[in-house]
Amino acid sequence: MPSRASIRAEAARVRGVFEAAGAEPVETAILQPAEVLLDLYGEDIRARAYVTSDPLKGEQMLRPDFTVPVVQMHMQSGAEPARYTYSGEVFRRQEDDPRRASEYMQVGYEVMGGAAPAEADAEVFALIAGIVAPLGLQAVTGDIGILMAAVDGLDTTDARKAALRRHIWRPRRFRTLMERFAGRADVPPSRTALLQTPDPIAGAGPLIGLRSQAEIAARITALRDDAATPPISEGEVELIDAILAVRETSPHALEHLRDIAVDMPAIAGAVAQLAARLDALDARGVDVAALPFEASYGRAQMEYYDGFVFGFTSDAHPDLPPVASGGRYDALTRQLGAGREIPAVGGVIRPGLLALLGDTA
After folding, report:
1. For 293-312, how does the pLDDT look when each residue is reduced to its tens digit (9 = 90+)?
2. Residue 79, Cβ neighbours under 10 Å: how many?
3. Do 64 and 48 touch, CB atoms closer than 8 A?
């Protein structure tokens, strides 16, 4: 493994590239308030976070990455547009693989604000691609915004759409919900009995747990409303499956998605944004014709990504995590900005992996 000194030297080099591109260096505290972070990070990160309790400040978390605190800082006081860079340790608890680091360096680049999201996407990707180019890594891109648009366009209730959107980053749960909402999965006997009982709460005994009687009654009403909702059509399920199956070079993926948009117009705007991004990437010298695109890419990562996503991995070292990754997170700015939303995209590089792969090249 590279020495700590060599990793810090690599981090300083990468951060220098980002500063030369116009980014303002920023710092964030290692110990972060846990409440907001636990709501925003995906289940994988939530389960792997180091959380502690402070008698005065409440629950605190060792920083699992930089994006959320940097966005918080910008939404409170930042001018727009802005570019930021940072470097430092992040912390992830490891329960399954002791070989994976629980503390490692990240160097990041974030672009917030601006009137041309496609240009910002291309800027971040091309800048990071240039840094990792000597290592011969494999790039992959995706766009979670296309699947979100498809869900929003389904001919079903807002409650079902909200449930599907909530689980976009949990592919197995998303698939289970699609099967149930399409009428393909049997309703569990216990739920059937519950829904057929006129007053399930009567005679149920004392309340146990944190939910009030009113909350339980509201949940039963929601389940009954859902049971009375017509199933999502087979045609719409097939279109969702077709989107998720797209895995081609970017130009072919774009054409495939345009074909799907003929039958699902709700995704037309997201597909047009993909086309604009590819044009912007091409203008920055990225070989778009050979750039892979996977519609499902990024669905098992951070929940705050809601558009363009990308990663760079080593085919020669498939056991390693991505050397660099990133994506668009416009909705996160709304959550942290009290309803005020701005375009935002960023990416991070792991200098320890840069140093490791550079030593083995």
Report:
1. 999 998 876 678 999 999 99
2. 8
3. yes
